[in-house]
Amino acid sequence: MHRTRFLIPAAAALLAVTAGAAAGCGSGDKNDKGSGSGKGKTIALFLPESKTTRYEAFDRPLFQERVKQLCPDCKIIYGNADQDPNKQQSQVEGALTQGADVIALDAVDAKAVAPLVNQARQKKIPVIAYDRLITGIGYAYFVSFDNVRVGQMQGQALLDALNQRGTTAKGKIVMLNGALTDPSSGDYKKGAHQVLDGKVQIGREFDTPDWSPDKAQQEMEQSITALGRDQIVGVLSANDGMAGGAIAAMKRAGYKQLPPITGQDAELAAVQRILTGEQNMTVYLNIRAQAYQSAELAVALVKGDKPTAPTKVNNGTADIPAYMLAPTAVTKDKIKDTIIKDGFYTADKICTGEVAAACKSAGLQ
Fold first, then answer.
1. CA geometry: angle 275, 216, 167, nearest 5 deg
2. What is the largest CA-CA distance in the chain?
3. CA distances (Å), origin 302, targets 24, 41, 96, 124
4. How far is CA 69 from CA 13, 18, 31, 225, in A?
């Protein structure tokens, strides 16, 4: 899939989107206070699942917060599909019936929602594809991260860790990719393979249904049985939840030292695992920037504006106006200057219990 990228550095993304509100919604001062011109308008947000903690902990509240800052009189409809495409269909159709004026949609199955987007188009309701690229139809905007770059970062971090340990040629790696229903998964996989192919042996590779940590744990257990515990030198996990599942499998198998393992989303448990040495890295996505940008576009649309996006992404059918944010690879030495500096988590939130000593050693306390 060809995509043109315009990258906003993650550390600066919040400043960029906050400043961009003026371009999307008229006067920045006026709209930050709430112009009232969205009175009677309804904005709908639909997220795909709750197994990945980011959606309920960050995406939902941040999106709602920014909408209310810019448009206090706007009504918000929200639904989480719990990884059920039929449930999401009912939620979106319900919003259309209730008179939603804009829909921000993070699709459970991004290939199957084109009919829903078409229903919205017939009612002249603009759709913002949130996080996952919807295929097969045109729509208003796409807001996400450079997902191929995410996979490249994960692949490079794993390769660097293997080289540092001197184990690159001494065994095989296991790849735990995301759900096939999420087109982002294909981009993560593509980026990782670009880095790893020809440099490591891939012993087992999975497309993990539903991004499920439990299923990732089962896949890791199968890999340990098939390849042998001592033959697995690294794990490429596409997100933190699945990394947690893989780590549970390896602990159960009796690993004295865990091989390096990657992640994504900077989940609290993953950040703590990085500090204690159980996980090698995560990819930090500035979700505040993504949620705020999407909320600003939604408010602009209900007020009759249509901001010009910095780039376009081809979804196989149309060139979609897009905002592509830059991911950040985070290892132990970068937690302070990224995750904590941006206020994603405080040091007190991270450094609890058994993690406190590791935090002190890392200079976080």
1. 60
2. 64
3. 11, 7, 15, 12
4. 18, 11, 8, 53
At 285-297, the pLDDT tens digits run 999 999 999 999 9
CA distances from 190 to 35, 194, 234, 331, 350 (A): 44, 6, 18, 22, 32
Per CATH, which fold does 147-284+329-362 belong to?
A: Rossmann fold (3.40.50)
Please state whether 316 falls in left (phi above 0), alpha (psi between -120 and 50) or beta. Answer: left
Q: H or E stretch including 215?
A: helix 213-227
Roughly how many angstroms between the first and final C-alpha of the chain, as a whole number? Answer: 45
* R_g (Cα) of the chain, nearest Å: 21
**Number of helical (H) and strand (E) elements in the chain, helices listed first:** 14, 13
Q: How far apart are CA 106 and CA 49, in angstroms?
A: 9
Give the pLDDT confidence score for residue 24 in this predicted structure. 40
Residue 325 sits at φ, ψ, to 5 deg, of: -95, 155
pLDDT in tens, 143-188: 999 999 999 999 999 999 999 999 999 999 999 999 999 989 999 9
Taking only the tens place, the pLDDT of each residue in 81-120 is 999 999 999 999 999 999 999 999 999 999 899 999 999 9
pTM of structure: 0.83
40 band by pLDDT with thresholds 50, 70 and 90: confident
**C-alpha–C-alpha distance, residues 79 and 82, integer Å:** 9
SS3 of residue 264 by DSSP: coil
Query: Rounded to 5 degrees, what angle do the CA atoms 285, 288, 293 make?
Result: 105
Query: Which part of the chain has CATH 3.40.50.2300?
Result: 7-145+286-326, 147-284+329-362
Share of the chain above pLDDT 70, in %: 90
Pairwise CA distance, residues 96 & 113, whole Å: 14
Domain 7-145+286-326, what architecture? 3-Layer(aba) Sandwich (3.40)
Question: Rounded to whole angstroms, what are the CA distances from 346 to 266, 284, 288, 338?
Answer: 13, 15, 15, 11
CA distance 101 to 95: 9
